[in-house]
Amino acid sequence: MPPFPYLDIFKKAYFLSIRNPWLWAFGFFIGGVGGINFGSFNFVFSPPRDREFQSLEQMGANVSQWISSNTLMFALIAAAVFALAIVLVIFSGISKGAVIWSARKFGEKEPVGFKPSLRSARKYMWRVIVLHSIVTLAYFVTLLVFVLPITYLFSVGAASRAVILSVIGFVIFIPASVVFSFMHLYGPIFVVLYDISLPAAVHHSFNLIRQKLKESILFALYLFGFAILFIFGLGFSIILAGVPLALFGWFMLSLGFGAGVNSLITGFIVLAVAYVIIMGSGFAVFQNIAWVLAVEEMIKTRKLPEKESKTVPAIEPVA
């Protein structure tokens, strides 16, 4: 079997994302999903100390007191935040479906545009949202199963038992987290590529993870490396652009134009934030297209059972 074409996939994803900047509008809502998130381990295996517990308790008491004194304001803020979250989730589902659908159509050499991709994405929107919600909920439930006992043991001073349970949790939770992360990535791709139900998407995703775990992890690590390089490049370009502006600001300040310097700084900050958002959206599109191409490649080299091969058609080589 030939080696997995990591470099070819990244090249195709790069050129597709660069040549179709209209996809970046979708990238703004889907964000980066290229790596595995192990950030929760920092809490699981570095639980808060006694002083931090006291600080959290004091913070909770202050928040409860403010809520009781400003019930109407809290209700309005909570309703606004909830409504905004719903809107963002819907836009995220549409954007995810649009990028996946577009990546597939690019491979089939069909004309793709903003309106057709948006129209097609609506068909898969709710399945993508529900699938993401189920996987995320399952992840956090699993996390709480480990976090709560460990936190409780540390809070009552049973440090030795907490450490033992932390080690056990480390051994169990890392594989579970990896599976949840790849289910979060692969599930929507199966939904959009094959227009299948949620149970079928979960089933095929799990089988793909099981059969292509090595390729999946290596691909995620490569994308994580690209993300690090992207962040450094983004920061360096902003610094590079800020050097002449800083010299110009220093010159204006020496002439006594303090108000002009403040306007210059404000304008630079606004442009820098816009630059980060736009470039971040483009990189998110690159990551998602890369995952779609990777899944298509994995399926082509995957051994499918007879029943499964009838529900998941073979994919033609991506041009």
Summarize this entry quickly.
The chain has 319 residues and is mostly helical. It has helices at residues 6-19, 24-30, 41-44, 50-69, 71-107, 114-155, 159-194, 198-211, 213-254, 258-300, 306-311.
- Helical content stands at over 70%
Total number of beta strands = 0
Radius of gyration computed on alpha carbons: 24 Å
Mind summarizing the main beta sheet? none
What is the total number of structural domains? Answer: 1
How do the helices and strands follow one another from N- to C-terminus?
A: HHHHHHHHHHH
Number of helices: 11
Class based on secondary structure composition and strand pairing: mainly alpha
End-to-end separation:
20 Å
Measured by DSSP, the beta-strand proportion falls in under 5%
Could you report the average pLDDT, rounded to the nearest whole number?
A: 82
Oligomer: single chain
Poorly predicted sequence stretches spanning 5 or more consecutive residues: 32-45, 304-310, 314-319
- From the spread of the alpha carbons, the general shape counts as globular
Protein described:
The structure is a single chain. The protein is built from eleven helices and no strands. It has 319 residues and is mostly helical. The two termini are 20 Å apart. The radius of gyration is 24 Å and the shape is globular. The chain has one domain (21-311).
